[in-house]
Amino acid sequence: MLEIKNLHARIAEDGTEIIRGLNLTVKAGEVAAIMGPNGSGKSTLSYILSGREDYEVTEGDILYNGESILELDPAERAAKGIFLAFQYPVEIPGVATMQFLKVAMNEQRKARGEAELTTPDFIRLVKEAAAELKINPDMLKRPLNVGFSGGEKKRAEILQMALLAPQLCILDETDSGLDIDALKIVADGVNALKSPDRATIVITHYQRLLDYIVPDTVHVLYKGQIIKTGDKSLALDLEANGYADIIGEAA
Ligand code: ADP
Ligand code: MG
Ligand code: MG
């Protein structure tokens, strides 16, 4: 589903190279974890996949279902089923969460040539998904993420993901700022979306989330490259021994 080949990318504003020859393949049905020390480029990679314009790809390619997506803007990538749950969800004052969800869902339907959702259908879908994630319906009336707690923001991200049912889900440190109960609810929400034609990339600094979202593959990102790939035991190994050995081996 996703094939990243020798990707090099830099910050558009000052030309600093952050991604330095990164290779990664993720198959349909797979849950891939990306781990790595702070500042390795994990969030940068997720932004580049989502098409954010602050970064420039200088070499290599990103193939999604066999086609390069480098020329697509964020909306086009979203319409093709790529979804990024942010490490730091953006506050959108003045736009009620419900309204935001409705626009997002209808934009996706429009891009696919489907009719707009009727209001009763939309409300039913949102209520069902919100109940699964134990989201208080009153939260949906408030402006998106404004004044939400860390846990509420992450749940709102997973609610968007559940409603848009993307093909490629990228979760950037969804575990940060979550207590254990919220972590389980969010993990259940992600696991409920698991399917043979969907892939999930779970970016995390800690192994803890991977007790609840069990990965098929674990990749270590360091200084803009994948320096090691393994199965879920690699995450346990990192938790026990830290990154130093693997970084040393790679060097
Ligand atoms: P991680 O998510 O693995 O902690 P990031 O992708 O956030 O790492 O950051 C990788 C490196 O790139 C860090 O050194 C960070 O300071 C730098 N960086 C990323 N984006 C920008 C930016 N827009 N401006 C300046 N530095 C940036
Ligand atoms: Mg970080
Ligand atoms: Mg990050």
Automatic annotation (TrEMBL):
Transmembrane segments: none annotated. This is Fe-S cluster assembly ATPase SufC. Belongs to the ABC transporter superfamily. Ycf16 family. NCBIfam families: sufC. Gene3D superfamilies: P-loop containing nucleotide triphosphate hydrolases (3.40.50.300). Keywords: ATP-binding, Nucleotide-binding. It holds the Pfam family ABC_tran. The keyword Flavoprotein does not apply. PANTHER family: ABC TRANSPORTER I FAMILY MEMBER 6, CHLOROPLASTIC. One of its GO terms (molecular function) is ATP binding. Residues 2-248 form the ABC transporter domain.
